[in-house]
Amino acid sequence: MSVQVIRPVPPAPPADLRRTDAHPDYWYPIAWSRELKPGHMLARSYAGEPVAVVRAKSGELFALENRCAHRQVPLTHGVVQGCGVRCGYHGWAYDAQGRCIDVPYLGSKDLPNGVRAYPCREVDGLIFIFPGDPALAEARLPAALGAKANASYKTRELNREVAAHYTFMHENLFDMNHQFLHRRQMGMIKARCLGRRHGEDWAEVDYSFSRTEGAPTVGEQAIIGVIGKRGGGDLTDLMTIRTEYPYQRLRVWVGGGEPVLHVWLGYTPLDKDQRTNRTFGYLSVKRPKIPGLLQAAWPFVTMFTENIFNEDKQIVELEQAAHDAQGQDWNNEVFPPIKDLRALLARCGVPAAA
């Protein structure tokens, strides 16, 4: 009598995080408010889908699928009329809800189907769309973007297209152990993880920093001069980085009180495979008590932060290139906060269709 040996089914390999799409049931920044004047449209994209962002002459803001239901040409090649748009090819017209309201040569009866409309709102100078279930939109609208609306901070825009999956962006900011990358900008800095916390849709990590060799650069001196510095060689008392899906923020405290530095970031996937993203964000610096100090230091703050962000952009694009060459995620992660973050991104995202 033979004995059948039943072997346990091995667990399925974890889904490739770089093939996990951003979840559509959240608001994603798609343009700056200043870019869109009344009576004009902007052509944008979300995860490969063309979007027309429209501001009526009255100021009403709305967003439509950027292709006419007739010949599929972009609506942004047409004109804004009232609280709607008219295609520039045959003149088909659509209202702010995407309904076809006029075909000039057809009459008012039996009008064809319209186009998709996206919930669209402005928050703190950024235009957002909601590509998922509209019923969830209002409850998930961000109330504020970092310290942008706080007059006690001076703020600059962060805006760039990055040829990398949005998850690389989250990991890059969350993991401050990559300070060696920025050695030309900051000298040799050591990050120390003070603690971590996480929940169903968020993860957070705390750091302090100390210099191990070299002197501060001009840009770094400008930052330190504005935000302050305590003794003992520390560059900051506390830095906290939080991913609250799908956004990120970074805050720095020196000696308690309000954060002296506040960064808010949103990553909008551009192509269907989500291998590129547009990073929108704000970097806000607390105004010091000395009048004019921040204004004088601002060119150096801008130069320093731009150099840091350019190095981050280059490295995550190299990560994406390595992933594409290997065909899958070979990352060998050992840092517990990043393990927390990766689990969060996998849990909150949507596995891409095979």
What does this protein structure show overall?
This protein is of the alpha+beta class. Helix content is 20%, strand content 33%. It has five helices and 20 strands. It has helices at 166-174, 183-186, 218-227, 293-326, 336-348, and strands at residues 20-21, 28-32, 40-46, 49-55, 61-65, 79-81, 84-86, 93-95, 100-102, 117-118, 120-123, 126-129, 153-162, 188-198, 202-213, 238-244, 247-253, 261-269, 277-286, 350-351. The strands form five sheets. Strands 13-19-18-17-16-15-14 form a seven-stranded antiparallel beta sheet. α1 runs antiparallel to α5 and α3 packs across α4 (293-326). The longest helix is centred in the C-terminal third of the chain and has 34 residues, at 293-326. It is globular and about 75 Å long. The two termini are 44 Å apart. The model is unreliable at 1-5, 9-13 and 230-235 (pLDDT under 50).
Topology:
Layout: E1 20-21, E2 28-32, E3 40-46, E4 49-55, E5 61-65, E6 79-81, E7 84-86, E8 93-95, E9 100-102, E10 117-118, E11 120-123, E12 126-129, E13 153-162, H1 166-174, H2 183-186, E14 188-198, E15 202-213, H3 218-227, E16 238-244, E17 247-253, E18 261-269, E19 277-286, H4 293-326, H5 336-348, E20 350-351
Antiparallel strand pairs: 1-20, 2-12, 3-4, 4-5, 5-10, 6-7, 7-8, 8-9, 11-12, 13-19, 14-15, 15-16, 16-17, 17-18, 18-19
Helix pairs in contact: 1-5, 3-4
